[in-house]
Each structure stands twice: as C-alpha cells, then as structure tokens.
C-alpha cells in the first residue's frame, strides 16, 4: 500500500505528488456535491488547475458523461503529461479513471475518495468503467490509479445513508477475509466505528487480494461476494424512478442472499447465516421486494461478468472469513434466495 496515503498526511502527500511530478495540466473532476462540500477542504493543497463538474449519481455513469469529460480535456488541450484528480465517490472514481485510461491512450489519474464506499473499495484496485444498456459496469478497463489519498474528514459531509452504503463493503471484507473482525464489529456496530483504524484495515484486505490477482483471473473474484445478486438488484432499481438503491444498499441485499445460498448448498452453517442476518438487519433497512421486483431482478443476473457459457457463477462462503469462488447457481436458486430475503 505504498501509494495509498491515509489521514492527516493524505492532503500534504497529494500536494507533494502534484508539485514533484510537474504535470502539464491538472484537472479536478467533481460532482455538484463534492465541489460544494469537499473541494474547499482540498483546494489549498492543489497547484494551478481546472475543475470540471459533472452530475452526481449512478444514472450518470454513462458514455454520454464520458464524452463530456473527453470533450473538455480536448478543448482545453490536455496532453499525455496531464493528470486527472478524481474528487468523489465510486461514480467519479470509476468514470474518471476510465476516461483517463482511454484519453490519448492513457494519462495519469489519482483518486481522492470522498465517500466511505470509495475509501474502502471503489478507489482501490484499478477497476474503472461505466454502466451500459442498463447493466452495471458493462464497459471498463483495469487501470490502477497512480496514488490514492484517503482522509476520513470527508465522512463528515456524508448522510447516514451514504455511510451505511460504504459500511456494506466493509462487512463484505470481513465476511471474506477477517472472521475475527466480523465477530468484533457485529457487536460494535456502525455507530462505534473507528474510521481511522477501520478504513486502512479494509484497504489492506482489498490491496492484498488485488496484488495477488490484479486482473481477476482467480482469487480476486472473492471481492465480488454479495455482488452477483447485489448488482442485479442495483441495476433493476436504477430503472425504477424513486426506488433507486445506493450501491451498498444493494450489496447488503446480495450479502444476505448469497449467504443464504451458501447455507442451502451445505457450505455455511445455519448459525453463521443467523449471525450475518442479525448484523445486516442491525444496520440496513429492509428493501421491500414484490413478486414483480424479484422477477425483474433475475434477468440482470445473466449479464454478470463472472458468468461462463451461460452459467451464473457466484462467490459463496464455506464459513465466515472463508469464501469460495466460481460456484454455479441457477436463476431458480437466486429467486429462492430473494424470496427468503423478502420473508425474514
């Protein structure tokens, strides 16, 4: 994690990085929220720069928005020795990294994550991309940020809903890689979270897995626990005006459904499933699913990036802290898991 900087040193390290590299131009990519709430906190650490504001939200993580970014870079004559500073959450980081990776065959970009979700997950690992034709992250490329600068001060700008969304990814990390932390945190809960300690630990888990398998040919797939069902639910509700889910809210649904699938397949014990259910229920409100919703979610599973020759491949748990990847599941089994979620 030598290129990831935390806490009080993050902004000074960003300043040092931008000054020492002598970039030809600096672009700060923000949305209306991060420009208002976060940009003032980091502005004094930036050299001369330009700022481009795009509209926030997953619905705007599209090629059309990318065209706006590329058009700006082109009109302002950004060259290959320029840098993009992604100041925002997962949408900004995913899309800004994607645009930087393709512009002039690749220019430098760094991430300054402003949400808990981006700090512990989206800003680290090198996955960039956009949604396409209603499917989550359908277009993308693996491209690592040169550096990541993480300061929990931004968490003070977030709503409780946004904090919970990021916390879902932290729970996922504990479920796949740290049973002891899961046991501790299920008693501590969200309100007692020590972000200065927990964020670096979560990043360390993800970084270790990514370094072992950068292009997701094997082990890195475990980071998708909860995301097969979760991404399908997120994509479905994105098309239901007024019912959209934040990423972490959808992943919380996926974590429970995929834990249930693990138990149904004889991998996870019923007692551990109960622990997971109780922890998730203590943090997240239940997403109301009608039979029509469940039927609408299922088709999105057929575009999951882990699928192989029409088989839906899922990450399941043998026990808390011990995941297994490339586990085939059927649409009927997923439907059963969603009905289980609906009933508990």
UniProtKB/TrEMBL annotation:
A matching Pfam family: DHQ_synthase
Entry superkingdom: Bacteria
GO molecular function: 3-dehydroquinate synthase activity
Domain annotation 3-dehydroquinate synthase C-terminal: ranges: 166-307
Domain 3-dehydroquinate synthase N-terminal: 52-164
Keywords per UniProt: Cobalt, Lyase, Metal-binding, NAD, Nucleotide-binding, Zinc
Enzyme class: lyase
This protein's record includes keyword Zinc: yes
Its EC number(s): 4.2.3.4
InterPro entries given in the database record: Dehydroquinate_synthase, DHQ_synth_AroB, DHQ_synth_fam, DHQS/DOIS_N, DHQS_C
Cofactor(s) needed for function: Co(2+); NAD(+)
NCBIfam families on file: aroB
Its job: Catalyzes the conversion of 3-deoxy-D-arabino-heptulosonate 7-phosphate (DAHP) to dehydroquinate (DHQ).
Protein name: 3-dehydroquinate synthase
Species per Swiss-Prot/TrEMBL record: Adhaeribacter terrigena
Lineage, highest ranks first: Bacteria, Pseudomonadati, Bacteroidota, Cytophagia, Cytophagales
């Amino acid at each position: 994690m030598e290129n990831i900087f935390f806490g009080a040193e993050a902004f000074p390290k960003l300043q040092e990085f931008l000054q020492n590299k002598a970039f030809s131009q600096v672009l700060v990519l923000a949305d209306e929220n991060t420009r208002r709430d976060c940009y003032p906190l980091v502005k004094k650490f930036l050299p001369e720069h330009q700022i481009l504001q795009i509209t926030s939200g997953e619905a705007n993580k599209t090629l059309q928005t990318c065209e706006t970014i590329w058009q700006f870079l082109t009109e302002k004559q950004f060259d290959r020795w320029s840098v993009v500073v992604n100041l925002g959450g997962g949408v900004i980081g995913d899309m800004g990294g994607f645009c930087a990776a393709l512009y002039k065959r690749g220019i430098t970009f760094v991430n300054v994550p402003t949400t808990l979700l981006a700090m512990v997950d989206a800003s680290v690992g090198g996955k960039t991309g956009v949604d396409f034709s209603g499917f989550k992250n359908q277009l993308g490329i693996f491209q690592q940020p040169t550096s990541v600068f993480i300061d929990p001060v931004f968490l003070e700008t977030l709503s409780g809903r946004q904090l919970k969304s990021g916390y879902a990814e932290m729970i996922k990390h504990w479920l796949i890689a740290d049973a002891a932390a899961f046991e501790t945190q299920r008693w501590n809960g969200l309100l007692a979270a020590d972000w200065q300690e927990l964020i670096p630990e979560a990043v360390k888990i993800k970084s270790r897995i990514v370094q072992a398998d950068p292009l997701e040919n094997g082990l890195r797939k475990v980071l998708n626990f909860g995301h097969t069902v979760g991404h399908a639910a997120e994509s479905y509700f994105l098309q239901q005006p007024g019912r959209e889910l934040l990423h972490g809210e959808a992943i919380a649904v996926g974590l429970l459904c995929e834990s249930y699938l693990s138990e149904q397949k004889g991998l996870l014990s019923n007692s551990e499933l109960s622990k997971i259910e109780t922890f998730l229920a203590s943090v997240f409100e239940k997403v109301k699913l009608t039979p029509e919703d469940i039927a609408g979610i299922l088709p999105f599973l057929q575009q999951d990036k882990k699928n192989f020759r029409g088989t839906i491949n899922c990450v399941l748990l043998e026990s808390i802290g011990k995941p297994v990847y490339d586990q085939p599941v059927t649409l009927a089994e997923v439907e059963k898991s969603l009905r289980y979620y609906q009933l508990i």
